[in-house]
Amino acid sequence: MADWCSLPVDILGEILLNLDSAQDVVYFSAVCSSWHCVFSMFKTMWFSGIPLLMLPENTKENPNFFRKLFCPNKQKCYQLKLPQTFGARCWGSSCGWVITLDLNLELYLFNPLTTARLGLPPQPTMPNQIKTDIHMIRDCFVDKAIVFKADGGDNDYIVIAILGEYCSPVAYARTGDKTWSSIPASETYKSVVDVVQFGSQTLFLYQRGAVGCCDMSTMTVMEYLPPPQGILDNVGLSRLYLFDSFGDLIMVARHKMEVLNEDLDAVEGWDLDVCYRTIDFKVYKLNFGNKIWEEVNDLGDVALFVGNNASMAVDVSGTNNCKNNCIYFTDDEWQFWDGPTLYGGGHDLGIFNIANQDFEILYEGDDIRSNFCTAL
C-alpha cells in the first residue's frame, strides 16, 4: 500500500494548489500531520479560481460566530467560525485577504481560510476625520478598500482606501505602517471610485469615467485618459469599475433603476422589499493605439466581478461553474443599507450575460441582507 504521508512536499503542494474548493483544502489539511504541514506552507498561495462569496453576519442564528461562505464551484455554502469579522465592515480582494474595519475603528487584513491577520493603521489616523458616532464611521467613512501586493516579503501589502462621500482624498498604508497617508485630490477630477494595478502602474478611476495614473513614489496623479464617450449620459444611479483583464484595460458602467416608495406598486415585476436594482451593464476596452474606449460585448473566456470589493477579472477556462463573458455583481449602494425595511442592502446581486443582456441568479438564499456590510 502506498505511503501517501511520505509524498514529497512539492508534489503535495501541487495537489493542494489544484484543489477547487475551500472544503477540499480544509479536508487536505486534516489528512495527517505531514499534509497539515504542507497546508501551512502553501495555504496563502491557494486560489479557488472563482472568488468565494462571504455572506453577511447573523449573530442571532449563529451565536458562535459562524459565517457562511458560498462556493460557486460546488454551489454549496460552508460555515467557518470567524469572530474576527463580526461587527466589522468588510471588503474582499484578489489577494485572498479581507479588509475589516470594526467598531473599535481598527483595520486588519484577515484571511478567512487560514485565520491569519495583519494589522493596519487605525481609522482615526486617516485624513479628513469627521465627528460622528462610531457606527457611522464604520459604515460610511471608507467606501471601498483595495489590496495590492508590495515588493517586500510574504506579508508586505499596500492597502488603498477610497474614502466616502464626505472625504475626497485617497488614503493608503503599507502593512507595518502606524498611520495612513493621503494622496491629494486632483484639481480636475475630484472623486476616485476604483483603483487597479495595471502592469507597473497604479490607475485611479474617477466618478465620471476619467482615468489617472498615480506615481506611488511621489503620490501624484499624472497622464489622464478621458472617459468613454457618453458613458453616464441620461442615467441615474450608477457605478464604474476598472480592471486589468489579462493585459486589456477594461471599464464597466453599471446602471441601476431607483424607484421611490410611492411608485413601487406601479413598476411591473418589482420586488416590494427593495427600491433599486441593477438593470444594465456597459463594457468598454481601451484601444491603446488611439487612446479611445471602445464598447465591447465579447470578453472571451473571462468573467468580471464587481461590487463593494476589488474589481476582478478571472480566466474561467478549466474553472467549474464559472460563466465566461459574464459579470458577477454584488450590492454596493451602501447609502441605502441602514435605511428602513423597504431599502435594506444586499439584494442587488446576480450574474449578467454580456452577449445576450440576460440576468441570472447567483445565490438564492434569504440571508443576504445587512444594514452595514452585505455579501462580498
TrEMBL record:
Entries under Pfam families matching the protein: Beta-prop_KIB1-4, F-box-like
What superkingdom heads the lineage?
Eukaryota
Alphabetical list of CDD domains matching this protein: F-box_SF
Which SUPFAM superfamilies does the annotation name? F-box domain
Q: Which residues form the F-box domain?
A: 7-48
InterPro entries in alphabetical order: F-box-like_dom_sf, F-box_BR-signaling, F-box_dom, KIB1-4_b-propeller
The signal peptide annotation in the UniProt record is: none
Q: What is this protein called?
A: F-box protein SKIP23-like
Organism annotation: Spinacia oleracea (Spinach)
In the UniProt record, what gene is named as encoding this protein? LOC110801171
